[in-house]
Amino acid sequence: MERWRLQRVSVDPEQAGLTGCWQFIAVWRDRQELRQGEVVEQSQEYSFYVTSLIAEEATAEQLAQSIRGHWAACENGSHYRRDVTLGEDASRISGRNAAQAMATLRNLVLGLFELQKDRDKANAPHVPGWRRKMTASAALRLIKKGV
User: Fold this and answer.
1) Which has the least CB within 10 A, 39, 56, 69, 124?
2) Per DSSP, what are the bridge partners of residue 27?
């Protein structure tokens, strides 16, 4: 069970110190995991957001839906693929430059796969199968000829 409370404050970009910022938004989330009617875990969290929408452009409910939709897309989209498919969270690379280089390579892998998939040229329906079939020389050929 989850309960959200959203508060927002209208500002102008000069007050906020952020170009295009017209509102500050605070979201309080209260989550309770229930099993057989009993609360087994409870958490509370505060999150803060900014938006370029003025107050009249979106209701509090619409803002809450946008925030939920954004994080659902992140969690179910790129984060899931980067973590589960490419094992990003399990990586033991600790150096900033090396971690950034690996993130770039992971983005390249996902980008190449998506481009091939969009053009019906991927030889597998999902990244793991495609990646297993991809060789370094084939990936370089794709990059050189623009996929």
Assistant:
1) 56
2) 6, 47
Which residue carries 């500050």 as its tokens?
A: 24
- Report the b/e string of 14-45 with b at 16+ CB within 10 A: eeeeeeebbbbbebeeeeeeeeeeeeeeeeee
Instruction: For the chain, give the number of residues.
Output: 147
φ/ψ (deg, to 5) at 6: -125, 130
What span, in angstroms and rounded, lies between the C-alpha atoms of 25 and 7? 6
Single-letter code of the amino acid located at 78:
S
Integer Cα distance of 49 and 25 in angstroms: 5
**pTM reported for the whole predicted model:** 0.51
> What's the pLDDT tens digit per position in 30-57?
988 888 888 888 899 999 999 999 999 9
Helices (H) and strands (E) in the chain, counts: 6, 3
